[in-house]
Structures are given as C-alpha cells and as structure tokens.
Amino acid sequence: MLKSPEDLTVRQERVKAENKGKIVLSLCSGTGCRANASQKVFEALSAELQKVNSGSNVILKRTGCHGFCEKGPILIIYPEEICYVSVKPSDVPDIVSKTIARGQLLPHLLWKNDTVTAVKHSEIPFYKHQTRYLLANNTHIDPASIEDYLGCNGYTALKRALFSMTPSDVIQEIKKANLRGRGGGGFPTGVKWEATRDAEGGEKYVVVNGDEGDPGAYMDRSILEGTPHSVLEGLIIGGYAIGASNGYFYIRQEYPLALENTRKAIAQAEELGLIGDNILGASFSFHVTVHQGAGAFVSGESSALLSAIEGRVGEPRLKYVRMSTSGLWGKPTALNNVETWANVPLIIANGAQWFNSIGTPGSKGSKIFSLVGKVENTGLVEVPMGTTLRKIINEIGGGIKNGKKFKAVQTGGPSGGCIPERHLDAQVDFDTLAELGSMMGSGGMIVMDEDSCMVDVARYFVEFLKEESCGKCLPCREGIGEMVSILNRIVMGGGKPDDLVFLEDLSVLLSEASLCGLGSSAANPVKSTLRYFKNEYESHILHKTCTALVCKAFTAFYIDKERCRGCMLCKKQCSVNAIQGEKAAAQRIDQRLCVKCGACLEICPAKFNAVRKISPVSDIPD
Amino acid sequence: MPLKTTYIFKFKFIGDSVTQSEDVVGVQIDRIIDRYKGRRGALIQILLDVQKENRWLPEEYLRHISDRLNVPLPQVYQVVTFYKAFSLKKRGRHLVIVCMGTACHVRGAPSLFDRISQKLGIKEGATTGDGRFTLLTVNCMGCCALGPVMAVDETYFSNPAKSDFDNILDSYT
After folding, report:
1. What is the separation, in whole angstroms, between the first and last Cα of chain B?
2. What is the secondary structure of B97-111 as a DSSP string?
3. CB atoms inside a 10 Å sphere around CB A607
4. Using CB atoms within 10 A as the burial measure, which of A174, A555, A573, B30 is most buried?
5. A612 sits in which H/E element
6. CATH architecture classification, B94-170
7. Is the distance from CB of A2 to CB of A147 less than 8 angstroms?
8. A89 preceded by cis ω (within 30°)?
9. More confident call, A602 vs A526
10. Any alpha helices (H) in A133-227, and if so which ranges?
11. Residues A293, A157 within the same domain
12. What pLDDT shows up at residue B7?
C-alpha cells in the first residue's frame, strides 16, 4: 500500500533498480498476435528458458500490441532492441541458445525488404517514421503488472496533480494544451471539464468511452490492452480536476482482453492505494467501475453510452441539455474517449508547452491510427497531428499490397469519407479532414486499391449504419433505409440516373434533421464517394459495369479455352455443378447456374491461370 | 395477484446438455445477480453473465431476472432485443464468426462469408441441424492484418480456402 507520494517514488525506483541490466524479452500478445499463435510462442519461450536455467537475469514479458500486426507475433529483445518478426514456436530454441545466450542474430527472423534488413525495432521503416508517445510503453509493459507501469514512471502525473496542483490548475493545464477529444468530435477537453466542474449538483462522474465500434479501428483496444494504467491514471486525474469521486469504464464486449486487462489494472491500483480513499495520503478519494457493453454501435454516442451504463437501451438523448450539466444518473458528467484520457498523464507530466510543440495550429499532440485494408504494413501508427496521408500510407504503411494501384483512403469510421489520390498530401488533422468531406473520427484508416468498388464501399457503410441506427428518430431510421435501397438497386443493376439526385437530397435531409451524430453523419460515405468517384456510380447505372469487378450483378466468370488444360479441379470445387467439360479438354461455365462464388478462380492453378472475371457481363466471349 | 410466481422451470443449461431442476438454475442465476448487489443499472451486466454461461437467454431466465431485479419484463426484453450480444434463440455448441469489418470487407469478406454459409448450409444467425455450429457475423474483430478473418469460438483463421473448411470444422464436435 502506498501511503504517500514518497512511497510512490521509492516504489518506482525499486522497480527500475530491479530491472537494470537485465535481458528483457518483450513478446506481443495483443489480440492480433494472439490470433497468430503468440500464446504458443510464449509457452515455448518460458519452457525453453526454464530448460537452460536462464535464471533471474532474463525477463520474459507478454505485452500489449506492438502495432506491427502484419508481421506478428513480434519479439523484441532488450537492451539491444533486437526485433524478430513472424516468430513461430519452432524458432524458440534458436532464439534462446543463439541470440540470448550468445548474442548471435537469426537473419531469417529479422524484418527485411529488397534494400534494407533491420536489426533494431526502431530501424524498421514502419516504426522509424512514427513518433510514439501514447504507444511508447506498449513494448515495455506487461499489462498485468502495475510494477512495469511504475517502472516507466507511471502515476508520476497523478502525484504531480494531487500534490503540486489544484484542481483548477489541472483544468487550466489541459486547456492550455489544447487537447481535443480523440473520439472524433474534436471538442476541447479542458472546456468540457471546466463546464462539468462548474456545474451545480453534488455528485459528479467521469467516464471512459471504450466503445470503439468503428470497424477497422482498434487504437483504443490496443491502449486498453497494452497500457490500461495510462487511461486509469488519466481518469483519476480527471476525477480530481472535476470533483468526481466515481469513474466508469465503458468497454465493448467484443474486446475481452481489454476488459480483462482493465479490470486487472483497477484491482492492482486499488491494492496499491492509487484508487480508493485518500489516494497517496491526499484528501482525494476515487472509485472506478467497469461496465461491459453488449454490442450496439450507437452506444458509442456519448448520451447513448450513459443510458447503457444506467442499464437501459443505448438510445441517444436530445442535446439541448449538456452532459456537463445532466449526464449519468442526471448528474454532471465528463465523458472522454480512451485515447483522450491516455493523453492526460502525458500532458500533466510533461506540461502543456511540450504538448503544444507537437502537431498543427488547430490540432495538438499525436494521434494513433489503425492503418488497415490493402496496405503492405497493417498496424497501429502513431504520428504527430499534421503528418500527410502519403507519409502514413507509403512510408509507414509501405504502400499498396501486391503492387496494385491506390484508389482511396477511408477515414473516420462508417460516418467518415473516402479521400482520393489527389489529396494524399493533405495534413491529417481535425480540420483538414473535415474540409475534404471526411473526418478524423476515432482514427480508422482503411486503404483501398483498384479492386475496391466505391459504390459498394458506400453501400457497405450505409448498410452498416442502417443496422446500427437505434430507430428513435425518423430521418435516420427511414432516411438511411431509403439510401440503402437505392444503393442496393444501383449495385444490383436497376439504378436510374435520377437516383444520384435523390441520394444527394437524402444526404441533406439526414444531416439536418437527425437527432444524433449517427444520423447526421450517415450520408458522409455517400457524399464523399459522389464527390470524388461519381464516374463509378455512372458506370454502374449507365453501362452496367463495375470496373473493380466487385458487384456481382455486373461481373461474370468464364474459362479461357486457350489456357484451360481440363484438370477438373474447378469442376470438383464448384458447388452448383455449373462447370462442364470432359477431362483434359477445356471447361465451360454455365452462366445460368453460376452463383459467382469465385471458387473456380481461387483453385485454378497459377500455371494455367485460365479462369477470368470480367465486367460487364456482356463481354463474355462465346 | 402478482404475475411473478407463474413461471415454470423446464429448461436445462445447454452447455453440458444435462437437465437441471428449477432450483439449480435459479440458484445459478441468483449467484450472478448477487455479484452485482447494490450496483445501479446492473441489468445488462447480469444478462451478459447469464448468456456467457448458457450461450442464449430462454424466456424463463428472463422472467426470473425480471422478478429478482424488479424490472418489468418488457423492459428486460427491450434491452435483450436492442443489444446484439444477446440471443433469444438456442445457439449451437460452437460459434462460427465471420468478420465483416471494413478492412475485411475490402479484402473479400463477403465471398468468404458466402463460402462458409454454403458449406454449413445455413444463413446468418442460424444453427446447423446437428446443433454443432451457429453462424454469425461481427463488425470488426480488430485483427485486421489477418483479414478476411473467420473465427470458430476463440480460434482465428486468416482467409481459409474453401478446401480448408473441412479440416477446420472437423476438429469441433
């Protein structure tokens, strides 16, 4: 139990002294790497280390997400910082007997491309071009160990806030830092806190929004999985600044590991006296509860999230009463996103001036993006605000997969927009992305290549939003539904030129008349694709063609007679018996039976490469 | 007359396929409810815990929870039908989940879904006749680097080919 600020300092120093001069194996155990069997690598490593009796000089750590998910599981060996990628359990004996025992490198586990072989983690281009503050400790901390966090100077910011600052000093510092909400809204955090602090009413609440519902985005999950204490520390500081003695974590149920690690972190902080009554001997007391979500995208909307915590359906409320006046249980509430809370200890520890030295005039600090889709290096990217899309996609992301051509990058989640190549030099911040018809959102960045159909992408997002609309207000419920039916009609081949005008009208209606942000931004995917890719809509409607070969109604498969050797593999694979022909003779697809599943294309051996996919359907040769 | 005591327990925890008496299940649910004693708004948390144990929520359970928490049954149903995590239908022993997140979508999730749906012979949300698999989709599992991705219970498979399905599915009974 830590009873005073001095106790904390002593404990931090003790952890640092204990770890000094030791070899640390940091194995990524985020959800992505776990899916890639990092658990088996961990078991193999611990067994092997035990076998060679490595003793206490080697520490094996299961950490949160290292970010380079494409090459997981990732193992970093400190202090040399040797980074091994795509590690398999069978690599473990060599890692222990050669690298750890004798300092010998295993070249086949190092990251390399045509020109560079990287030994150190920081030499890999994916990491080299990033600037990591929020994710900096992810490779050093076992999220199940509060000691690790203390060893990285964890809870120093809390100590500073409690013993060297008044609550209003803290709010002023956050205001001076110009921290804007990372959940997508970009609202100034300090202003929100001040309004909550100034509001009437005894009990107040602080809430972490961990309902990261945007598909293709997992920044918040990785923070909660990797360094849950950073969010917790931010929340306690926020509680102190605002005058709240209770805080809530709302975490979506699809993130079991984030839930587990957050719960553990809270229990450990309680045990050490960093949460509870009279924290570190100060007069401030604070308690934390975790609320698990139950699967509803709209619950990420702040007022809907509070309803969910109250045990009710997560429907948004009207916004004329601000949450800072009447939020959770009708009391003043400050709700911020996971990443926003994680920025708080950084600002308090390093000062507003430091934070202001990073970023653009309107958007300060760094931002984490989840770079996914058709990009070479999928993963989590933390860069200063104002970094260009081109740098993120090409230098960090390594460009487009399989040498294909870039078409668009989608930012801002389902309510965001698609940005075309000509705007790739735009600097990513809240304001620039909004000008381009997209938005920052929570930080999802989905890269699309020439094989992505933009009408299909718009349809995908709008359909997603239709499913997720809570149905409370009419414009959203009916408007999105109508949009989906028009877009479905277009991709099914029944589109009319008038449809585009109607889509634009509906967009205006939705954005002006909806109750909450879900409805008012629901048209963004349509608006932005109409703005930059209208030609694709027109070719669907007028020429019944999908150049990306995505929309089933406009595509067909056929077998090139010249190339087919009649190996019959495709025939065996076809589940509807649409392929006809004798063995060793060219096969033929019966278009009336074909369900366009693509199994024949997938199975056709590369040396024959005989199955073709084309659009429009009328282009099939006889 | 209050409605509360009219329900009949005639169900079993499908997890182990053993019929249990009214008392056993009542006690198990009560144990979960007691965990949240004194916490406001615990309905969703209780339902999640019960569903975790039983994989779906039979009407009798909901009546019991409504009773114990003194929350009207329609309100319990409102919550259960609003959130996706809850199922009012019996689910199979294993969940086959296809990720339909954006990153997976652009990497071919729809066709992966079609293939697995064809293989299992069921549509989304349905359960195979032998009670082995229920087919579900989710909006993002967050392992976008593996996309398009499919999971059986908690094991992930990156873009399995149609020819791999047999191997994958055979290992689940």
Report:
1. 47
2. EEE--HHHHHTTHHH
3. 9
4. A174
5. strand A611-614
6. 3-Layer(aba) Sandwich (3.40)
7. no
8. no
9. A526
10. 146-151, 156-164, 167-177, 189-198, 219-226
11. yes
12. 37
CA nearest to A1, candidates A361, A233, A243, A275: A275
Chain B residues with CB-CB distance to A460 below 8 A: 102, 105
- Interface contact A36, partner B, CB < 8 A: yes
| pLDDT above 70 (res B24) | no
pTM over 0.80: yes
What is the C-alpha to C-alpha distance for residues A71 and A87, in angstroms, rounded to an integer?
Answer: 9
pLDDT for residue A462? 94
Residue type (1 letter), B131:
G
Q: Which domain holds residue A608?
A: 555-619
Q: Judge if A164 and A277 occupy the same domain.
A: yes
Q: Which residues contact A211 (CB under 8 A, 6 or more apart)?
A: A250, A251, A252, A293, A299, A300, A305
Supply φ then ψ for residue A82, to 5 degrees: -65, 130
* Residues of chain B contacting residue A599, judged by C-beta atoms under 8 Å apart: 115, 162
Q: Tell me the average pLDDT of chain B.
A: 83
CB within 8 Å: B102 and A373: yes
Tell me, what CATH number does A283's domain have? 3.40.50.11540
Return the SS3 of A512: helix
Do the chains contact at A313 and B156, CB–CB below 8 Å?
Answer: no
The answer to the question of residue A64 being in a domain is yes
Task: Work out the angle at residue A488's Cα, subtended by the Cα atoms of residues A486 and A493, and round it to the nearest 5 degrees.
Answer: 100
Rounded average pLDDT over A2-19: 95
CATH number, domain at A588? 3.30.70.20
User: From CA A498, how far away is CA A504, in angstroms rounded?
Assistant: 10
CB spacing of A294 vs B84 below 8 angstroms: yes
| A442: phi then psi, degrees, rounded to nearest 5 | -90, -10
Q: How far is CA A606 from CA A38, A573, A586, A600, A609, in A?
A: 32, 16, 16, 12, 5
Under 8 Å between Cβ of A304 and A315: yes
Q: Is residue A135 part of a domain?
A: no
What's the total number of domains in chain A?
Answer: 5
Instruction: Specify the 3-state DSSP secondary structure of A466.
Output: helix
ipTM for the predicted complex: 0.83
Q: Of the residues A356, A381, A412, which one is the last residue of a structural domain?
A: A356
For residue A372, give the nearest of B29, B104, B39, B58 by alpha carbon.
Answer: B104
Q: Per the CB < 8 Å rule, is B114 touching A597?
A: yes
Helix (H) or strand (E) holding B138: strand B133-138
B-proximal residues of A, 339-398, CB under 8 Å: 370, 372-374, 378-379
Chain B contact set for A253 (CB, 8 A):
48, 85
pLDDT tens, position by position, B76-96: 999 999 998 899 999 999 999
| Cβ–Cβ under 8 Å, residues A536 and A547 | yes
Pairing mode, strands A417-420 and A444-449: unpaired
Each domain of chain B, given as residue ranges in start order, spans 4-82, 94-170
User: Can you give A43-73 as a three-state secondary structure string?
Assistant: HHHHHHHHHCCCHHHEEEEEECCCCCHHHCC
- Domain finish residue from A124, A159, A177: A124
